Amino acid sequence: MATSALADDLQALGFSALEAQVYLALLQTPDATGYRIAKAVGKPVANVYKALDALSAKGAVLVEDSDPRAFTPVPPKDLLRAQERAFRERTRRLERGLRALAPAATPQKIYSIGSSEGVFEQVRTLLAATEDVVLVDAFPMVLEQLRDDLAAAAVRGVTVHVKAYAPMAIDGVHVTCDEAATDVRGRWPCQWINAVADGRSVVLAALSATGDEVIQAVRSESAFLAWILHGGLLAEISWSALDDQRLGRSLKQRHEAARAQRDLAIDRSWSEHRGLRQLLEQQGRVSLAAATGGGTR
User: Fold this and answer.
1) Cα gap 131→127, rounded to integer Å
2) 121 pLDDT higher than 90
3) CA gap 118, 122 in Å, rounded
4) Of 101, 114, 157, 185, whose Cβ has the fewest other Cβ atoms within 10 Å?
């Protein structure tokens, strides 16, 4: 990598342009005086000494107690580890502070997502917050980018069901490939993802064929919309799984497949389902047992 690119990356970490130059020069010439470094970078000696003092304060250089003073760089591995720890701490402080300032999102509202990066970040946030079950309907390129996040949700004990449009295996995730996957991809020259978590949070997105532009994308915490999508995706996944499993199977195997899908369809009692519970509470239905006929389907 060119030193100019390294200098840009160091500036992204909070170094000034001169501090980045000086640190890189020190890596190539350790135990150097400020005068020698000034000659190497072609900058005034006074400015370089100011940069060295700033780097020392940042923990990026060590100063030898000699006359004249000599400077040596902190090894890159140690420097970056310290920067990473500081970044995590700043992020935690910011999260606490910003959360305290920001009002809670209005659950019924629908928010647009303006970039493909934003779409993937919103889906990852949704997956990280899922407590019980997440249903996903997505094209291959999207699933590849979210593979690790889906697997991580499954490791946490979340039930993860995916309707895919190309054969794919993801650790701990129940993946069902749509029987008409090739036809569906041919009719839709885009990349899409529909995801619903716990029947209460949704992300819906259609991206360009390359996945780098948003055609339309939304996020909502509306339990009403999420519960509808949950039911729809559940039906689609169940039907696709039955299509996938019944061909070439014996009658007994088909019955077993049907029972497995019935178990998916009633993945939890109504009274335990977070999305439905939230929806009923919003409607003032405090008695869930009465609202759900005793708490079961």
Assistant:
1) 9
2) yes
3) 6
4) 101
Q: Give the confidence band of 235 by pLDDT, cuts at 50, 70, 90.
A: confident
C-alpha to C-alpha distance for 175 and 181, rounded to whole angstroms = 13
Average pLDDT taken over every residue of the chain: 82
- Length reported for the chain: 297
Position 106 pLDDT exceeds 60: no
Give the distance from CA 257 to its chain's centroid: 33
Q: Is the pLDDT of residue 251 over 90?
A: no
Q: Are 73 and 23 in contact (CB under 8 A)?
A: yes
Hey, which bits of the chain come out as E strands? 32-33, 61-64, 70-73, 110-112, 133-138, 159-164, 174-177, 191-197, 201-207, 214-220
Contact status, residue 6 vs residue 31, Cβ threshold 8 Å: no
> 168-197, pLDDT tens digit by residue?
899 999 888 877 777 777 777 889 999 999
Angular region, 160: left φ>0, alpha ψ -120 to 50, beta rest: beta
Lowest model confidence (mean pLDDT) among 35-39, 183-187, 243-247? 243-247
Query: How do beta strands 159-164 and 133-138 pair?
Result: parallel
pLDDT (0 to 100) of residue 47: 95
CA 186 to chain centre: 28
- pTM for the predicted model, two decimal places: 0.59
148-175 burial, b if ≥16 CB within 10 A, otherwise e? ebbebbbeeebbbbbbbbeeeebeebbb
Question: Under a CB-based contact definition with an 8 Å cutoff, are residues 129 and 151 in contact?
Answer: no
The tokens of 156 are what? 């946490």
Backbone angles phi, psi at 138, to 5 degrees: -155, 155
- Give the separation between CA 287 and CA 281, rounded to whole angstroms: 9
